[in-house]
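Give me the fold.
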Amino acid sequence: MSSLFTYSFVENKAVVADLDREITFSKDEFYNQSEELGFSIKSQLGSASTLLNAGKTTNFIYKINELNLTSKQIAEINAINTKSKIKDRIEKLKELKGKLQFENTESSVFENNLVLIDSALPKIVSEILFLFFTSPHSKISDLVAEISKANPLGYNLANHHLFYSYKIKHFLTDIALGMMPSKVWTGELDGTGGHLVVKDNGEILCYHIYNRNEFEDYLYANTKLETASSTRHEFGTVYKDNEQLYFKLNLQIRFL
């Protein structure tokens, strides 16, 4: 979980500290500063940490179009309980000629946070999430590469603009520096100095906010989507609302 640390320079060393401990590492002379700056920190000691935690707030809602199901059929699909049950339920819907179309996120706060970062993000993330649950891909970079080839938003790619990776990198960076699905995001960064990563071997990587491109590339290359608890977060089942069929998918992002 992220927490806020500060650093200051003492005798040619950078000292990162909270109330309980200090970490000292070599000073980069290029960033010689005297003021204290906040850092967001992620630890990879033990299992890999999450970048974005799952919750009902990270559910994406999809309409199931061109398909009518009886209550019995809905129950049969929802009863699929294989190891890859979410994927298999979607496959069953596709076998029945159903088409899933992104409608909105369950949380209007999260959707507006995405729109604040980039107006196309809700749609882009919904496409990436759907691909995750219907393909072998889980790494963010692989998913974005596939989406970029499919180009579901119909961007003009004649000049090879990297629309999808650019927007997703900004999304990941805002998450790392303070954006939460349940709180209104103003763009004000929690980690104003940057981001510290404590690797599983104890090595500390410091990504200064001035090295934003390097930090974005790190997040993009070192994160993946994963499936959270469908029972706890209430997704992955067919349901009906006002005679319209729906299906929810959940977004959780973890470091590799």
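Residues 4-255 form one domain.
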